[in-house]
Write a structure and sequence with these properties.
heterodimer, A: about 300 residues, alpha/beta, Rossmann fold, 2 domains, 6-stranded mixed beta sheet, globular, B: about 425 residues, alpha+beta, Elongation Factor Tu (Ef-tu), domain 3, 8-stranded antiparallel beta sheet, 7 helices, 23 strands, about 15% helix, about 35% strand
């Protein structure tokens, strides 16, 4: 028997590939939700490992809030060119223009919540029956109970009380017309696992994940990138700081952390020692303790 | 570093959530903002310390009722290992959640309240552990602080449990006296129980053998997807993508494809841009065969010299998971790895009273019932017995009216 060193990253990787292939085998019209963040970038890498030398059996779908970090969009377009797969963009601006959603007002206005409508419209338009996402169970308490194959009704709602039992490595993807399934292949990964995997696989990331100098303001105790998308007033003091981002979301709700981590090794040691969890850097989770559960029930990723 | 998946069942009163909270807390797996949220919440222990149980209570309904109603997965890591905890409620009405949580675990923690000893729920939890074939069992005798850390109490409980373990054929059982509330023997060895010479729970979990390398000859790979690029340069490329369930496939191994029975030889094993000499249990790979065989999703590639069972009548243990009772007059879908076919439950042999382990004849099968049935499938399944090969000896039942997963099956015998 050959030597065989199957470590934890190999195991997580093999599990995720298995899940992606189940999606390909069980669904007619799947899609991979791509945000430009490290988790969805990891998913793209896993999809390459699952399906190459063939094409992906699904397009990538980006729900664009219009409030993006420019670096993310540049990265997205370069990546699509490199992998030669199809990209579909669902635009929140379009949903606003069509009057389907109303832009939030006030100081903490963000387009994060509006994404849900655009996502559901995009799913309906292309009749996607499965949407692969990069959510992980370690992110938040409500996520800790979500299945890898998670059923949404035609309103995009998740019902935590009506989840299907998920046993062994058998995934039940049967749905009724109008329903769809969200699939989370990296459910069992932690933030640190993702970073270790990115390092091992030498995956390139958008530059905002690494330390850079940026104009920021401090709001609700968190550093926000100064941008036209933030409703700033005279109370907001703009400072230049050395920062990086731990998640890549909408500019109006993604907080930066002060950091000198220029390299992936620095980031991994920073996270290992870190005292703020990744979602702690997202304002939208702070609104109430049950915030995530409420948003998931409403169709959020 | 590898992964240990473990399972905990317990009721609110056993302090199971406190035990898990303690493991997370004492291994520094709780981050500052989560801790802050904990401190803001108004649930405290009697002595004013943080109620660690809140860490594992996920959903709002649970917070309101103060109970865990589903399976929650928790993660932590030490320098030696990554841990995945499947945390489930222990009341009898959550049997299906326990079965679910236990299905992927390779170790189970059974909690016993030192004040009460082996009780009905201990039998229930241990039965589920044995039913689902979890290899290692750790019995934590908790709340030792409430019995003055007494060795006599501890020993009496162990003696009683040993009888149960024997009855359930649990081969590998380890006993640890703990106090989750005070932290004794969870991460640190206790000062209060010098009579206990074993390790703390965490140290044990760090070094217990997980045996990822399945040395059985039962090489099995269900085909999930056929990779056919159909480009000019890869015109004839045809790779069978799947995850090796068990055993090992080596280059040039003789294999059989089921259900067709076609034979061939492993010509190439690919993993993305690498070519491998062998594919082992757990790996997701692409296998190429020498011969042009017709293979599609739902077929299984197996070692030609260790064939699985192949019948349409199977004796199996069934756990019913739906609020609508089993209907022996209708067809269900049975999903066995990547294979889906229709089936009926032909016969209910008996039901088990999981509090007493007594078997009873039964006419009906309701939510959380467990027992032995005969399944009749439309297409023959290529399966192994659960005790020989968990990954290829299990299946789920899907109700085609609701699409819900309604049953878990563990194959016990092929019926000729």
């Amino acid at each position: 028997m050959s030597t065989y060193n199957f470590d934890y990253l190999d195991e997580l990787e093999a599990e995720a590939i298995h899940i992606l292939r189940e999606v390909a085998g069980q669904f007619e019209k799947p899609a991979l939700l791509f945000s430009g963040g490290k988790d969805s970038i990891t998913l793209v890498r896993l999809a390459e490992k699952a399906f190459r030398p063939g094409k992906f059996p699904f397009p990538l779908v980006h729900i664009d809030t219009g409030h993006n970090f420019e670096e993310t969009i540049t990265y997205r377009d370069q990546m699509i060119e490199r992998i030669g797969e199809k990209l579909i963009v669902g635009s929140v601006q379009e949903s606003i223009d069509q009057g389907k959603v109303v832009e939030q007002t006030g100081k903490n206005a963000s387009r994060n919540a509006l994404q849900t409508v655009t996502l559901l419209d995009t799913i309906a338009k292309y009749q996607f029956d499965a949407c692969i996402g990069g959510a992980r169970r370690d992110e938040e308490k409500a996520r800790a109970k979500e299945r890898i194959f998670s059923v949404r009704d035609e309103f995009g709602q998740w019902d935590p009380k009506r989840q299907r039992p998920e046993l062994w490595n058998i995934y039940n993807g049967k749905i009724h017309k109008g329903e769809n399934i969200r699939v989370f292949p990296i459910s069992n990964w932690t933030e640190l696992d993702v970073w270790n995997y990115i390092r091992r696989e030498k995956i390139e990331l958008p530059s905002i994940y690494f330390s850079h100098e940026r104009e920021v303001i401090t709001r609700n105790g968190q550093l926000m990138a100064a941008s036209p998308f933030l409703n700033m007033d005279e109370e907001d003091v703009v400072e230049r700081k050395q920062v990086r981002f731990r998640t890549v979301g909408d500019m109006s709700c993604t907080a930066a952390v002060e950091s000198d981590a220029f390299l992936i090794d620095d980031i991994i040691s920073e996270i290992s020692a870190s005292k703020i969890s990744e979602r702690g850097a997202r304002l939208d989770d702070k609104v109430s303790e049950a915030a995530m559960e409420d948003r998931k029930k409403g169709g959020y990723f | 570093m590898n992964i240990l998946k473990f399972f905990t069942a317990g009721s609110v009163d056993d302090g199971k959530s406190t035990l898990i909270g303690r493991l997370l807390y004492d291994t520094d797996s709780i981050l500052a903002d989560q801790l802050e949220a904990l401190q803001r919440s108004n649930r405290k222990n009697d002595d004013g310390t943080i109620d660690l149980a809140i860490l594992t209570d996920g959903l709002r309904a649970e917070r309101e009722q103060g109970i865990t109603i589903d399976v929650a997965y928790k993660y932590f890591q030490t320098e030696k290992r990554k841990f995945i905890i499947a945390d489930t409620p222990g009341h009898i009405q959550y049997t299906r959640n326990m079965v679910t949580g236990a299905s992927t675990a390779n170790l189970a923690i059974i909690l016993i309240d030192a004040r009460n000893g082996v009780v009905e729920q201990t039998i229930r939890h241990s039965y589920i552990v044995s039913l689902l074939g979890i290899k290692h069992v750790v019995v934590c005798i908790n709340k030792m602080d409430m019995v003055d850390y007494s060795e006599t109490v501890y020993s009496a409980i162990i003696e009683k449990y040993k009888i149960l373990a024997q009855q359930l054929k649990l081969a590998d059982v380890t006993y640890i006296p703990v106090s989750a509330l005070k932290g004794d023997n969870v991460v640190q060895t206790s000062e209060h129980m010098r009579w206990y010479e074993g390790e703390s729970l965490l140290h044990f979990l760090e070094k217990v053998d997980t045996d990822h390398l399945d040395r059985s000859q039962l090489a099995r790979m269900p085909v999930q997807w056929v990779v056919r690029p159909q480009t000019a340069e890869l015109h004839d490329y045809r790779g069978y993508a799947g995850r090796v369930l068990s055993g090992t496939f080596n280059l040039n191994d003789k294999v059989t494809v089921l259900p067709s029975g076609a034979s061939s030889v492993v010509e190439k094993i690919e993993f993305f841009d690498e070519e491998l000499a062998a594919a082992h249990a757990g790996q997701s790979v692409i296998i190429h065969l020498k011969d042009d065989v017709d293979i599609s999703r739902g077929d299984t590639i197996v070692n030609a010299s260790a064939l699985p069972q192949e019948t349409k009548l199977i004796e199996a243990d069934l756990c019913w998971m739906d609020t609508r009772a089993l209907d022996t007059s209708i067809m269900y879908n049975i999903q066995h790895n990547s294979k889906v076919t229709k089936c009926k439950i032909n016969e209910i042999l008996h039901k088990v009273d999981i509090n007493t382990l007594e078997k009873h004849p039964a006419e009906e099968f309701k939510l959380n019932d467990i027992g032995r049935v005969i399944v009749k499938t439309a297409d023959a399944l290529a399966f192994d017995l659960y005790d020989d090969n968990r990954a290829n000896g299990s299946a789920i039942l899907v109700d085609t009216r609701t699409n819900l997963t309604v049953g878990a099956l563990m194959f016990r015998a092929a019926v000729e």
